[in-house]
């Protein structure tokens, strides 16, 4: 076991250079993800759940938009900051109802912090969970996906409305300078 640990330290040292990277924490996150998918597979088989041949186009559209929105809500939203607080430190606002946060800690804590503050990283987990939901509980998951898609569409409308107000205000200001 000592040889394995020594080899792992050498790999980490060569990879990280002067800036330590939490490779063990990343490995733990990947193992957790694999264990979750494995558990879902075993439970599905035990319950006789059959995988769909393919997902319908409307399910795919809802899944894509819902994954995007849920990932941003979890990784960036002000209201979900208590979930990230054990792993992060508040930095500053980052646009409409979003925050920038710095990752805290070392090892697994740092790796989890990076995962939960990165909407791109979280999207793999969210898409997997929502896809599993479509297999295990399709009606409830479609409802959740619809809600998240409606929130994403509302966000676009809110931003568009605000942007049009700013354009009209700027155009009005230009007209008053004449």
- Separation, N- and C-terminal Cα atoms: 80 Å
Rg from Cα: 22 Å
Oligomer: single chain
* Count of domains: 1
Which residue ranges are poorly predicted, with pLDDT under 50 across at least 5 consecutive positions? none
Structural class, from helix and strand content?
mainly alpha
Mind summarizing the main beta sheet? 2 strands, antiparallel
- Reading the helices and strands in chain order gives HHHHEEHHH
Side-by-side strand order of the widest sheet = 1-2
What's the total number of strands? Answer: 2
Mean model confidence by pLDDT: 92
Strand content: 5-15%
Shape summary = flat
- Total of DSSP H or I helical runs spanning 4+ residues: 7
Name the helicity range.
over 70%
Précis, in short:
The protein has seven helices and two strands; from the N terminus they run H-H-H-H-E-E-H-H-H. The protein is mainly alpha-helical.
Structural notes for this entry:
The chain contains seven helices and two strands. Helix 6 (119-136) runs antiparallel to helix 7. It has helices at 2-16, 23-47, 57-76, 81-84, 107-116, 119-136, 138-176, and strands at residues 88-93, 99-103. Helix content is 74%, strand content 6%. The chain is flat, with a radius of gyration of 22 Å. It is mainly alpha-helical and 178 residues long. The chain has one domain (2-170). Strands 1-2 form a two-stranded antiparallel ribbon. The N and C termini lie far apart (80 Å). The longest helix is centred in the last third of the chain and has 39 residues, at 138-176.
């Amino acid at each position: 076991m000592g040889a394995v640990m020594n080899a792992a330290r050498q790999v980490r040292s060569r990879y990280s250079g002067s800036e330590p990277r939490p490779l063990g924490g990343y490995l733990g996150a990947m193992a957790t993800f694999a264990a979750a998918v494995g558990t879902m597979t075993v439970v599905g088989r035990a319950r006789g759940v059959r995988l769909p041949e393919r997902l319908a186009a409307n399910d795919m559209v809802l899944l894509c938009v819902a994954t995007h929105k849920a990932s941003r809500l979890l990784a960036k939203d002000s209201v979900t900051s208590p979930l990230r607080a054990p792993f992060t430190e508040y930095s500053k606002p980052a646009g409409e109802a979003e925050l920038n946060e710095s990752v805290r800690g070392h090892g697994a804590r740092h790796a989890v912090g990076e995962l939960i503050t990165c909407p791109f990283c979280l999207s793999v987990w969210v898409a997997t969970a929502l896809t599993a939901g479509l297999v295990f509980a399709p009606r409830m998951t479609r409802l959740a996906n619809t809600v998240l898609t409606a929130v994403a569409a509302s966000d676009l409308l809110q931003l568009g409305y605000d942007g049009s107000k700013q354009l009209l205000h700027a155009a009005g200001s230009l007209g008053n300078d004449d």
